[in-house]
Amino acid sequence: MKYTSTIDINLPIDKTVALWENENNFKEWQDGFKSIELISGIRNSKGAKSKIIYQDKRRIELLETIISCQLPKEKIALYEHRHMTNTQTTRFKVINPNKTQYISEVEYTKFNGILIKLMAKLFPGKFKEQSQKWMNQFKEFAELTDI
Fold first, then answer.
1. Cα–Cα distance measured from residue 59 to residue 68, given in angstroms and rounded to the nearest whole number
2. Strand partners, 139
3. What are the tens digits of pLDDT across the range 4-26?
């Protein structure tokens, strides 16, 4: 399953990217975000691995591996969870000096377990909905934040 989500942010590209990649801001736009811990490598460098924890109704632990990080052009990361594996490519493009397009391409490459496979088959739009929700929340946070 593969999809792309986009949103326009009313900020210059440098401010948008700075807010997006600052881990202290994740809690502001990613529901349930608790922590990110660098396990190996250099943060945001090829091969770096981090453990990301979300806690809402249940605890979710992801392993992030950076494939490439050349922001604002793109950041490609592999996310592994016991129920699924996906790659996310994030890009930022200048629309004008005060407006940036935020693009997220997500490709799920593996689903483990009958329930998650069924969800992906019957409700693929739910995955894109979640990505778009976080992008909308990022836009709202970013446009209200002055750095």
1. 27
2. none
3. 999 999 999 999 999 999 999 99
Please give, one letter per residue, the 3-state secondary structure of 9-72.
Answer: ECCCHHHHHHHHHCHHHHHHHCCCEEEEEEEECCCCCCCCEEEEEEECCCEEEEEEEEEEEECC
Question: CB-based burial of residue 67 (10 Å sphere; 0-12 exposed, 13-18 middle, 19+ buried)?
Answer: middle
| pLDDT for residue 146 is more than 80 | no
Rounded Cα–Cα distance for residues 85 and 72 (Å): 24
pLDDT by residue (tens digit) across 114-137? Answer: 888 888 888 888 999 999 999 999
Sequence-distant (6+) residues with CB within 8 A of 146 are none
pTM, to two decimals: 0.92
Q: Dihedrals φ, ψ of 128, to 5°?
A: -65, -40
CA dist., res. 104 & res. 82, Å (int): 22
**Two tokens, residue 2:** 């593969």
67, two tokens:
């494939």
List domains and CATH numbers for the chain.
2-31+72-144 (3.30.530.20)
